[in-house]
Amino acid sequence: MACLAGAVAGFSHPVQAQEASPPAATAAASGPSLREVTVTGNPLGATDLIVPVSTLQGAELAQQARGTLGETLNGTPGVSSTYFGPNASRPIIRGLDGDRIRVLNNGGATLDASALSFDHAVPLEPITVDRIEVLRGPGALQYGGSAVGGVVNVIDNRIPREALNGVTGKVDLGGATGNGERSSAAMVEGGNERYALHVDGFDRRTDDVKVPLSLACERAGSPAQASRICNSASRAQGGALGGSVFFDRGYLGASVATYQTTYGTVAEDNVSIGMRSNRYALEGEWRQPVALLENLKFQFSHSDYRHTEYESGVAGTRFSNQGNDLRLEARHQPWSGVQGVVGFQAESGRFAAVGDEAFAPYSRSSSQALFVHEELPTAWGKLSAGARTEQVTVRSLGNADVDRFQVGERRFNPHSLALGALWNVAPAWQLTSNLAYTERAPKDYELFANGPHLATAAWETGNSALGKERSTSLELGAQWKSGPHQAALNAYQTRFANYIGLLPSGDVLSAEGQRNPSDASVSTYPEYRYVGIRARFTGLEGRATVRLQGPGGLRPVSHWGALDLQLRGDLVRAINADTQEALPRIAPARLGASLAWSLGPWSLRGGFDHAAAQSRVPSDSRATAAYTLWNAMGSYKTTAQWGGQRTQLLWYARLDNLTNQLAYSATSILTTTAFPKAPLPGRSLKVGLQLAF
């Protein structure tokens, strides 16, 4: 794991150029100062990364956290969200979503059903985590072919990795006007040089989300017409217990965590989902186990995920996913200057769907992988190389209650390779380049799906003859930093030789599976098939910070505090290279700007995020209009003595969509399949208090 500069307040900087906001109570007028954090992007402890990594933590995470992981990260350059309403949203990185994005918990796999369907939530609660990291581009290779788009690593301290001295804790309380949010979370840790214990819990409740137009609603007990997203209320609760034992050369820890939620699916007024996910984890490190190794790390987790879909309170389709994840990683001693790690990863999962809306069969999936990551420091920068080979087995077991599913097994042997270079051109300049070839094995539903999927309003048909998804990626980056001023730009292109897409076949099927029924009174679903096509993704990501006032700034006056102008933007174009038609659910060009001011314990930030119109859509998708969302945020930090205990208090407020702008997300399937039911949230004020002792 790497120790390097912390995240900038805007959460949009590459790691090597990031700055972290200091505690406001001690921050000088000079503005942010550097501090060290641990980042997933490099397993070798390097202070400069070749691949772009962004980090959100501390006060910024507390202020920017939303109810879903996707919306918490949305707006970061290169990152958007699937936005299936306010309760289910996965991150999209550089136009890629689903199983091309790996969502990790402390570096280990999370098993759920969120990649299977847009209406399935990720069982992670942003208000309980310490840090969220986004690793983009070829550097994600060490996590497998399913990480071709990138990695989102959600990090907590449920397994303590460092010895504690006494008792510490944190309490987070919040509320919002736009969705009636009432949230609370608490964490307590205690220990000594040999033992550490962690306990946390959370509870979050929301009402239907306010929006800038009146929408119809057929849910029982709700108004027939209201300026709210019908069926968007939710409740989530959970917690964890963990502990570690420390030895002279390492530690061994374990944790058990639970996450439960009930939420409306938005697309259907009377359908809700009840979810429960339990995760059991074991983790450890052994430093200098033998002469040739600096350390040996391992992680193991078992996940038990289940959710039930209810219609008007009656239980319907039930989904479950149970599985294990094992990761071993050994860092070797430098050989002729070359530093590196070798590792082994194994995953297994058992998926089942029972009910009328089961569009995928029972299945078993397993994979085993070997990987290596090596770096060579040079006088001018560094070189890196990585490789991974996997064995993947996907088996369909059919479904005793549904006879339309194919039974069978496919085996794949994906290989991936990445090369990178970093060049310190001048004291203030760095150039980076990354080249990667990645192969991904098809998922169970891509191979064997066959049924109506209400979240996509389509009949989805898998293709058991699909081959490996193959892609080649090239990325070039430039970073500049001079005192408080900094800027970065990354350009990339990913070409897929066999991109597995879900495309219309032109046929329609009835709920019973009859193809193109002659009876016009029979309700039907358009058929979409998983097919391999050539595809191309091309994009730019950029950000810049200019110190307008304060030490090192354009106006070096410090007694009025530090004032920074923060700029951010991204652009991605994705096409079906066989037909030259645009691929669906691609974010439009986006541009944002903020003014950030800090003085002593106070900080204020305000600005806008503009999304251009998205007219580059397939013929079966809806174009979206341009919109601009204005926002503001403020915080105040102080300390207090309670019962002899020194407590840090962070008061914060965030105003979203200040002008109550009506907007629809180009990356949400609901914009096409359920328009106009799910616009982006309207004006909302969130206030919160975080106590740390």
Itemize the secondary structure elements and their pairings.
Elements: E1 2-5, E2 36-39, E3 53-57, H1 58-64, H2 69-73, E4 79-81, E5 91-93, E6 101-105, E7 108-109, E8 131-136, E9 150-155, E10 166-176, E11 182-191, E12 195-206, E13 210-216, E14 225-228, E15 234-247, E16 250-264, E17 271-287, E18 293-311, E19 314-335, E20 338-354, E21 362-377, E22 381-398, E23 408-412, E24 415-426, E25 429-440, H3 444-448, E26 450-453, E27 458-461, E28 469-482, E29 485-510, E30 524-549, E31 562-576, E32 581-582, E33 590-599, E34 602-611, E35 627-642, E36 645-656, H4 670-673, E37 684-692
Main location: membrane
Keywords: Cell outer membrane, Membrane, Receptor, TonB box, Transmembrane, Transmembrane beta strand, Transport
Subcellular location: Cell outer membrane
Keyword list:
693 residues; mainly beta; Maltoporin, Chain A; 22-stranded antiparallel β-barrel; five-stranded mixed beta sheet; 4 helices; 37 strands; 3% helix; disordered N terminus; Beta-barrel_TonB; transmembrane; transmembrane beta strand
Summarize the entry for a quick read.
By secondary structure, this protein is mainly beta. It has a single domain, classed as Beta Barrel (Maltoporin, Chain A).
Describe this structure in words.
The strands form 5 sheets. This protein has a 22-stranded antiparallel β-barrel. Helix content is 3%, strand content 57%. It has a single domain, classed as Maltoporin, Chain A. The chain is mainly beta. Strand 18 (293-311) and strand 19 (314-335) form a beta hairpin. The radius of gyration is 25 Å and the shape is globular. The relative contact order is 0.13.
